[in-house]
Amino acid sequence: xxxxxxxxxxxxxxxxxxxxxxxxxxxxxxxxxxxxxxxxxxxxxxxxxxxxxxxxxxxxxxxxxxxxxxxxxxxxxxxxxxxxxxxxxxxxxxxxxxxxxxxxxxxxxxxxxxxxxxxxxxxxxxxxxxxxxxxxxxxxxxxxxxxxxxxxxxxxxxxxxxxxxxxxxxxxxxxxxxxxxxxxxxxxxxxxxxxxxxxxxxxxxxxxxxxxxxxxxxxxxxxxxxxxxxxxxxxxxxxxxxxxxxxxxxxxxxxxxxxxxxxxxxxxxxxxxxxxxxxxxxxxxxxxxxxxxxxxxxxxxxxxxxxx
Length: 308
Description:
The chain is mainly alpha-helical.
């Protein structure tokens, strides 16, 4: 908590880099304790304790959730937390999303007229606090309302991740065109804003890990089609670790089918030869497990242009 609550660039010597490096050092220390049996995995996940109101500290600076996810993903030391810790984490997700969106919510008002008769913007962040919805649904609703509030603006991409990236780039472009992006206060806000989509993406991955389902609660393919390696890795891991229960297997089958629908509909997508080969191998595993014809999947792959 002492590291998390140190606001980057507000205190001498406290930078985003220092904060992330120190946090990673502590995570590696925690991993050592868990491996030695001194701590349980729940000790690590206590840093999401909703009673500590720690979400506001996590939301400071940039890259912190990415640091945590990269550590969690590569470690074999941790087991999923007990039910009480899972409940704490679920409460943390919506409150963190609210706190982490503060900067982009503030800066988007540069694009919204001061007097709008059609859209109220005062409470848009409240959509992120809806505990009945998933993070994906809350972010999608939040961004749809923002899209409605900006005159003559429609997202050109699909999925909350791409939309959030596009919104941040649009705000940054406007602030740069107005000559105010290089002031120190604006520069820190812009860096924080541009990092938001990647932080939320890692939060989504941590949530899937914590909540279980064999790690197969992968993000929607359309949110990651610009990083095809991420999706290939998800499905490679999924086939290798697929649980035996029928319900989870059906979910995985649908995810794989949805992935190929997105591939089919993506304009301007290209593949390296290695990526194409890996996709063909995934199709082989898919047909072995679920049956059916490989034709629509293999045809989709060969119709995507290869990079020079």
